[in-house]
Design brief:
261 residues; 20% helix; 5 helices; five-stranded mixed beta sheet; globular; alpha+beta
Length: 261
């Protein structure tokens, strides 16, 4: 008798994900790297390889690397991030979305290495001395590659973490204003269940530069355009939809009211 209730059709999931902009691949990997304890540098490289494929590499210098390598391929495994609203991911879902739209993925970390390709999943002997390195051959057109390049420049790197994209450090942004506010977020309870709570957090406002459109951010990761006067970066988990690309109108109203006040 089989123990597992579910199977996931990788190709079917990939077709669903095609409606999303491919920048979500970059954002998922970068936010995971930013969340690693002790990380001081995250390097990202994106290179179009032709035939609608691009190589995306994300590497960090976190001392411990992945806590559990099996989380790279286990959907919705219990995440330690769920109890900390100041870490970006909490569904243990992002890496699996990356796998779905990639032809090949190699993950190297201090706990070991694993490769995904047309033959399946393979454990490798090599390991990183520190940090993690993820190499993805992603299904991406030349136009999509250019779009991801542009989206990468919207990232607001956390304080104390140098973030490099294609050899160039993302410029530091200085907030024009910072204040505390109470906003809804999601935190795991004693049973590991995510609950909606109101929590006081920092909110940072950034200047909208020429050519930009004001956006709502979750700890440096762009979420959705607002068209307002400033970029608003909320320093805790924002209650996102499952696609991680939008919030409810009521949440936007709450943020605008706080900023206006």
């Amino acid at each position: 008798m089989l123990k597992n209730w579910f199977e996931v059709d990788k190709d079917g999931l990939a077709r669903i994900l095609e409606r999303k902009g491919k920048e979500f691949v970059l954002f998922e990997l970068v936010q995971n790297a930013w969340d690693e304890p002790g990380v001081t540098k995250v390097s990202v490289a994106l290179e179009y390889r032709g035939r609608n494929r691009a190589l995306l590499v994300v590497e960090d210098d976190a001392p411990e690397g992945f806590k559990d390598l099996s989380h790279a391929f286990t959907l919705f495994a219990d995440s330690a991030k769920k109890s900390n609203p100041e870490q970006r991911g909490r569904f243990n879902f992002g890496e699996k979305l990356v796998l779905a739209i990639s032809d090949e993925v190699t993950i190297r970390t201090t706990k070991g290495s694993i490769r995904f390709d047309s033959e399946g999943r393979h454990r490798l002997r090599a390991a990183q001395p520190v940090g993690s390195r993820i190499e993805c051959l992603v299904r991406m057109t030349a136009d999509e590659c250019q779009a991801v390049d542009a989206e990468a420049r919207k990232l607001i790197a956390p304080e104390g973490i140098t973030t490099v994209f294609n050899g160039v450090e993302l410029p530091r942004r200085t907030p024009v204003e910072q204040f505390n506010a109470t906003l809804p977020t999601e935190v795991a309870d004693a049973d590991g269940l995510l609950r909606r709570v109101n929590r006081t957090t920092k909110v940072r406002l950034y200047e909208v530069k020429p050519g930009e459109t004001a956006m709502l951010y979750e700890m440096g990761i762009p979420v959705v355009e607002t068209g307002d006067k400033w970029h608003v970066d909320v320093q805790q988990n924002v209650p996102l939809n499952m696609d991680r690309d939008n919030v409810t109108p009521s949440y936007v109203r709450d943020v605008r009211t706080i900023v206006g006040n």
